[in-house]
Amino acid sequence: MKDNTVLIAKRSKIALIITIIGLVLSVLVQISTFINLGKSDANPLYDAMMSMTYIGLFFMVIAVVGLVFLIKKSYYKAGLTLTITGIACAIFVNPFPGIAILIGGVITSNVDKLEKGER
């Protein structure tokens, strides 16, 4: 069996960078949503948008937990957490940061398979 340590290190760095980019984008989206919602309370969708913002913040905290798993090199937990969180962020926050987190989770799952020797 061949040694995949270089490939594992390279792909885990790529997954880490993509996930951090997705989290930064989702933080910027949440900040802009708070700023825009704070301008007018007379908006009829104000309460719904605020609840979506709080749900998005919750999933972003879970994405940070997945990022911690990725840094600790627990690739199975990180891949699972980031994949599920990426889908949820794509629904509740914004599609672009959610897709970035989802791609980071898929790459991390691939790293897990490489580490186990399945590929």
Could you give a short description of this structure?
It is built from four helices and no strands. It is an all-alpha fold and 119 residues long. The relative contact order is 0.19.
Any chance you could write out the topology, listing elements then pairs?
Elements: H1 5-39, H2 46-71, H3 75-92, H4 95-116
Helix pairs in contact: 1-2, 1-4, 2-3, 3-4
Protein described:
The protein is 85% helix and 0% strand. It has 119 residues and is mainly alpha-helical. It is elongated, with a radius of gyration of 17 Å.
- Radius of gyration of CA atoms, rounded to a whole number: 17 Å
Share of β-strand residues: under 5%
Provide the structure class: mainly alpha
Spatial shape: elongated
Task: Name the poorly predicted regions.
Answer: none
Mean pLDDT over the residues:
85
Question: What is the tally of beta strands?
Answer: 0
Distance between the termini: 10 Å
What is the overall number of helices? 4
Instruction: Provide the succession of SSEs.
Output: HHHH
Helical content (DSSP H or I, runs of 4+):
over 70%
Outline the biggest β-sheet: none
